[in-house]
Amino acid sequence: MHTAEKTILDRYQIIEELGTGGFSTVYKAFDSKMERLVAIKFIPSHSKATTWAKREAKTSAHLNHPNIATIHEYDETEDGHYLIMEYLEGINLRDVLEAKEKLEIEEAIAIASQVAVALEYAHINFVVHKDIKPENLMIIADGRVKIMDFGTSRLLSQMEQSKNTLVGTPSYMSPEQSRFEITDDRCDQFSLGTVLYEMLTGKNPFEAATNKACLYKVQNQEVAPPSSLLKEIPEELDNAILKVLSKDRENRYATITDFRYKVERSYNLPANSRQIVKNLYEQFVEVEEESLGPQIAKRDNLLEIARDIIGRIYAKNSNFVGKLFSVLLFVAFVLSIGSGLWLGVAYPLLVGVTHRPKKAIALACPAALLLGLFAPIGLKAAFGSIYITHLFHILLWTATALIVSILSLKRSFKNDALVYLIGMLILISGYLLLPGLKEAGLDKVMQSVSLSLIISLAILSLTPYDYLDIGKKDES
User: Which pTM value belongs to this model?
Assistant: First the structure.
């Protein structure tokens, strides 16, 4: 699967690729049936992670919680497996830690508290995550923290079956996991304690150069109190973290609820601790915008919002909007003929980029005939015959629209821009074949070609052309 295919499972229209991991690729998509944005995790059928995909879908089916990313659907085809998930517009905790190194005490506790609440719910429903780490924690704009990726999770009833499988991330993994022992929900305490330690101090206590060295530390090395790295950490919080990082799970808390209570009581948090996380999110976003330049960042956000809105409208009414776009494009072409500049030269390129070959030809032919009738650049003088002029326009514009349409079937802005330039070169080459064009106005033609190229590329960069491909498929 790749983004050029656009529509999968007959309802999900791919917008962009969000990221690629060792076994899967995640896409942002629009669900045309439910009219919502989703994230799609695609695992190829030959991947070893297909069993994880099924497990994630099944275990997550037990969970419906505001701090757990929702999985809407699971499906599989010959190509692979698809997890249709809630699309989260937020920031990853790992990105925050890389930018800020360590958090304020109240920020770390507020995040850990929300994660603990979500894990409480999962444990009550007999689900253990087994891979809590910053990469799997997403902070969203309203201040909520969401746990993602239950692909390594297990139902408590399946823990015996998984005792011979190493599951998790070494530097966040409990000692019993690293020793291939039967685990229970207390392994999530250890992982969350490690994340909290890292948020407070900026250091993972088990970080090492190799996985083997990480596992050795997890199994054998006692952890230094967090307060040894940050003296402002209260003793009660120190003790709570050290308790959940015990090598022997019997020395940890009976439940993660007990751990949460101890952590929350160790520090005087405001009543609405979610506001603390929301402020952290806003602070992080502001830092990102400043690094890009405030105006550029704001402009990019507005463009993305506009493209999503237009794209959703198009996805819902692709046939109507496609026809309306074709009409408006033709009207704009007719109006351009009456202007002082021959901007209509871009027309066969635009219809080629936005339409399937058959429709592109159907739109290019009458436009070429119309332009020949008006002959604003003196082509009749070049050939001395209006009939030859019309025939030339029809052949040149039809060929250009056809070639551009075929080359732009696999959609991306870079591909469209390249195809557009190729089409422009075809047009210019065609007009240079006219023996009398130099005397009839070659300079004016080249000026118009250059200006129309600039205008058209600007339109391409501002238009949500990803969605235009939906209409192109409907026509075939």
Answer: 0.62
Rg from Cα positions in the chain? 30
- CATH number of the domain where residue 271 is located: 1.10.510.10
Name the residue among 245, 151, 144 with its Cα closest to residue 198. Answer: 245
Q: What share of the chain is helix, strand, coil (3-state, %, to 5)?
A: 60, 10, 30
Q: Domain span at residue 250?
A: 90-290
109 shares a domain with 80: no
430 in the same domain as 337: yes
**Same structural domain for residues 52 and 109?**
no
Q: Are residues 32 and 105 in the same domain?
A: no
Q: Is 131 a catalytic residue?
A: yes
pLDDT in tens, 295-332: 434 444 555 555 566 556 555 555 665 667 667 767 76
DSSP of 315-330, one letter per residue?
HHTHHHHHHHHHHHHH
Contact in structure between 261 and 276 (CB atoms under 8 Å): no
Active-site choice (131, 185, 416, 469): 131
Last residue of a domain, one of 290, 323, 349: 290
